[in-house]
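Sequence in, structure out.
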Amino acid sequence: MKLTNMSELLLLLLFSSMASSSASSDDDFVYAGCSQPKYDAASLYQSNLDALFASLANSAAFSSYANFTSAAARGTPAAYGLFQCRGDVAVSECAACVHSCLSQLSALCPSAAGAFVQLRGCYLRYGNDSFLGKPDTSVLYKKCASPSAGGGHGDDESGMQLSMRDAALAALQTSRGGSYRVGAAGEVKAVAQCVGDQSANQCDECTAAAVARLREVCGLAGAGDAYLGKCYVRYSSEGVDTSHDDHGDEAGKTAAIIIGLIAGIALILLFLSFVRKAGNQGK
């Protein structure tokens, strides 16, 4: 079964604080997604994936973006993949971040036919569908700092805060500096980046969609993140960042509930196994 878009991946949203104790690290976890279809570890598709992952890991040593298609084994779906590091990350740090992506995906999405992981410093995606070059403005992850963290309490201060935020975000849309864009206004800084397989027009459209999403959901929040299928936009005021904020979106809360249920089921199975063994020893 081929995966045609992000909606066919089972999205696992976890807050970065659950994956890392250092909010400033490029390895900080943002989100990951795993396909429901699995592949057999002994299949020919595994050979394609092995070749793909090797190409991605090797290229990260000298490039901040690369995509590959691996069809090493004939008669089986090709494996498509890409990685991209944040525009201000050094190449040496990029390689380490991509290796971290590969390591985390093997733990989070074992035997998944397709998957992706977003860290603060880099992004990696693979699958058996030809997603390369296709636009995608679906929202995968969003987060806003608490409104009180913005520092503005009066109407004048709130209005000024919004004006600075909007000006910083607008600068991202008027920038022609490529896929990585930076904007600032007063104490508010903003950054955007599109995946390297997007054209200039596709990047503009994705950035505009992410900016609109942040304006819609973050209100007076002093910081906000919006990660879409092929781009992300982040903004923050001085001293405010979403990394330490506990106010995530509903998808994140749902994921936490699912994770709790899975843990509960695991404990029940462990208990039943213990009871069964105790019963066998008593016979």
